[in-house]
Structures are given as C-alpha cells and as structure tokens.
Design brief:
CATH class of the largest domain: Alpha Beta
Helix content: 40-55%
Number of domains: 2
Structural class: alpha/beta
Largest sheet: 5 strands, mixed
Strand content: 15-25%
Strand order of the largest sheet: 3-2-1-4-5
Bound molecules: 5'-O-[(R)-(carboxyoxy)(hydroxy)phosphoryl]adenosine, zinc ion
CATH architecture of the largest domain: 2-Layer Sandwich
Radius of gyration: 21 Å
Length: 352
Amino acid sequence: MIILGIESSCDETGVALVKTEGSGLPVLLADALHSQIEMHQAFGGVVPELASRDHIRRVLPLTKQVLDKSGLNLGDIDVVAYTKGPGLAGALLVGSGVACALGAALGKPVLGVHHLEGHLLSPFLSADPPEFPFVALLVSGGHTQLMRVDGVGKYEILGESVDDAAGEAFDKSAKLMGLPYPGGPGLAKLAVGGNEKAFKLPRPLLHSGDLNFSFAGLKTAVLVQIKKLVEQEGVPVEQFSPALMADIAASTQAAIVDVLVRKSGTALLQTGLKRLVVAGGVGANQRLRQQLNAVCALNGVRVHYPELALCTDNGAMIAMAAAMRLQSGQQTANTDYAFDVKPRWPLDSLTA
Ligand code: KG4
Ligand code: ZN
C-alpha cells in the first residue's frame, strides 16, 4: 500500500510517500520539505496567516516532487494522510483541505493523523527502529511530555510541562540573547564553545518527585542574568563578546538538558522499562543526545532517536503514523471527505 502524508501544522510544509508490505515496518519512498523559517524570521516568530498562505503555495509542488522522486503517479496512491491537529487552525486547514480534495478526486480514502503521534513514531523510520513497549520523551516546540508507549495508540502520559515546553525554553532564551527565530538550533550551536557552569541557572522541578516539567522560570532567570551582564559590561546584549554569548548559551542549554535527562531516568526507573525513545525538534540537540546516551548506557537502557532530518516537522512522520495505524488495525481510512481539524488535541485521547 502507498500512503501520501501531508504535514502543515505550523511553519513547515512536508510531503512524503511511504510504502507498506504486510506487517513489516513501512518504508520511506520519498520526502520533500519547505521550511518557512526565513519568512517568519523578520517577525521574530510564526505569523499564522502567512504560514497558511505559504502552505497553499508549497503543498502541490512538493507533492509533485515526491511523486517524481519515487517514480510514482497520483493513481498509485492508496491512502492520503494529513495532519489533523494539534497546530495552527488555518495552517492545518490547508493540508487537510488539499488531502481530502485529492482523496475525493482520486476516489481514495483519507486519514487524519495526530501530529505528536507522528513525532512519536518517527524513530521507526530510522536505521535503528525501536520495539514496543518504551518510555517516550517527546520534546517539540509546543510540547514536553514523558509517556509510556505500549503500542500504536496505547499512550499513557506520565508527566508533562505545566507551562513552557523545552523547545519554547530554548527559543525564548535565544530571543533574549538576540538570536533569530527559532533560537533552539542557534543557541545549541553557540553553546558548543561555552562553559556550562559559567552561570547558575535554575533546574525547575528537578526534585519534585513527579515527572512534570516547568520551564517558564528558567526564561525569567536568563532574563535577569542578561540584565545583570548588560550593566556589568556596559553594552547591550547584541554587543556581548562571542565568549560571553557562548557561556550564556551553554549554561541555559545545560539547565534544560539536565531536567530532561533526570526526569527521563526517573520515568525509566518507575516503569521498569529498558527502552527510551526521543522525538520532536529538541531531540536534535547534541548535548541532550550525549547526556541521554551516557545515562542510558550506565543503566542498560537502549535509546532511539529519529534521523536528524526527521526530528523537526516533516511529512514522512505523518505518512508513517498513518501507515502504522492502518497496519495495527487501530483505524481505517475513510471516504468521508468532510474534514475537520483539531488545533487542540491531547495525545492520550487517541483510543487504542
Ligand atoms: O517538533 P518541532 O519541529 O515543532 C513542533 O512540533 O513544535 O520542534 C521545533 C522546536 C523549536 O523550539 C526548535 O528551537 C527546537 O525544536 N530545536 C532545537 C534544536 N533543533 C530544533 N532545540 C535545541 N537544539 C536543537 N538542535
Ligand atoms: Zn512538531
């Protein structure tokens, strides 16, 4: 079966083709992406209306690209999958509308996919795919969650952020440092040469005993630290030396990563599981990967990541999640083309 996946929940238009054969793991045939980051940078963040309009411009050319790359035609597609939520309503409507129109025109069924389920299952596309059950650390721009995953659709939330997500903590701290949106990758790059002990920043809820996170206070601490330094140095943050910027970045990154690593360890201990899956944009962070690898190696835990290119939003994970849902019998694709979108949609409301 050939599944076309369309992602348009935020600032990336992603389209991909995945093939399933029997009950074997689905295979990625082709994948194309357009990132709107440059367009939104001028505004310091995502402008929803511009995002929707750009998705409209990109989605069909990207669909043609994946068909060309894989040597397939529209008629070869068996199911059209799309991101139904969560995300920006207008952006979601573009992908959903195009997917349902395409399905109706081709006479093929469609399937709405949960964006976070896409992230969660994206490591199954890697060269080292996991096996169920596992603990998942889902760290995206909008969500930070620890989950027990027993199979497709069997998700139990063990803990989550009570305020900002880890990605937001990266992005907001980076913005305070004058870095362009989205600041996470830029802050991580700067941190490489920095001293992570240079500034003492809080590790919120580190010892709370539960598996929840809170990153809003960290952003405030970074702001206070930068204000202090502006006074000390007598220059605005834009004129800080590269060494000072690297130290702020390294200290901030260490505070976020420490909490993520400690809580993931606790989740593994509490569940007794020996497998950890990391997914979402922050999963691309090298410091997080190094620390998790070290802790997991010490405790005999196997850890799995998506391929680096599939950590952030993409169409492959949407096609993959649809394929795995269909294979597991969790869901059937349908020919009711009266689509709706779910801008807010808790992952654990998906039924097993
Ligand atoms: O999963 P994703 O693409 O989008 C959402 O579904 O939210 O995640 C985007 C987030 C952004 O906050 C971005 O700054 C962060 O992932 N991110 C990183 C890195 N690469 C992306 N954060 C830290 N280090 C990175 N290398
Ligand atoms: Zn995402």
